[in-house]
Amino acid sequence: MHNLCVAHRGSSYSAPENTLAAFRQAMEFPFVKWIELDVQLSRDSVPVVIHDFSLERTTNGTGLVRDKSWDELRRLDAGSWKSLRYRGEPIPSLVEVLDLCKGKVHLNIELKTTGDMYPGLEREVLRLIISRGMEQDVVLTSFDQQALRRVKELMPGIGTGLITDIRPADLSTRLSSLGCSFLSMAYPKIDAKLMTEMTKQGVAVMAWTADQAGAIRRLVSLHPDLMICTNRPETWDQAVNGTSLLGNTLLTIKRWLIR
């Protein structure tokens, strides 16, 4: 087995999603080789790491991300909603995440946009990736096909991937026309036939988001190259390798002791 474990928004079952705390926890697991995260723009065009277009679910703020300056966003509490242990955990900027992860894990950076919601998003994200020399360490993904086209116009050599929760009949053609070498698909839609087709096309596939051991084991059985995205990397060893939970339990205790 050499399926790659991708931590969805970091170790987001145990820590507040899309925060440095969640990313640090994910990187404690040696089998986590990729982290998935979401990027939007602040009002003053700073790439920030947050999933929702609005602030209410994962912060103590209100309103839309795009209406707030970076200075306003960085002052928000993005941790207390998950647990009081994470009170004061901030929304990170993309550059903070790049600096944390460089040389340690690869990043699947989802461009959270639709239409002309975030003019310049692709350019700003690429600028930071290039400034850190991480062009080979990332893939830029999106539901928005226009965003993927803009990325390729700006930097043809960067890896890009389409995100989809459906399986269209023209999927192979669509990926080819977009220049995508990566497919991020809802895991119930993935089967062995799809994996054979994508492998022949040279497209890497990531399944999202599987948290139950049975679902992870089914995905592993489909193809050794299928990447599996999970909110719960702490269950990976047990689900995939059938190992004991003791190691993960000790790691959890260690985290409590150092906080």
UniProtKB/TrEMBL annotation:
Domain GP-PDE: 3-240
Top-level taxon in the UniProt lineage: Bacteria
Family annotation (Pfam families): GDPD (PF03009)
InterPro entries listed in its UniProt record: GP_PDE_dom, PLC-like_Pdiesterase_TIM-brl
Name under which the protein is recorded: Glycerophosphodiester phosphodiesterase family protein
Species in which this protein is naturally found: Paenibacillus zeirhizosphaerae
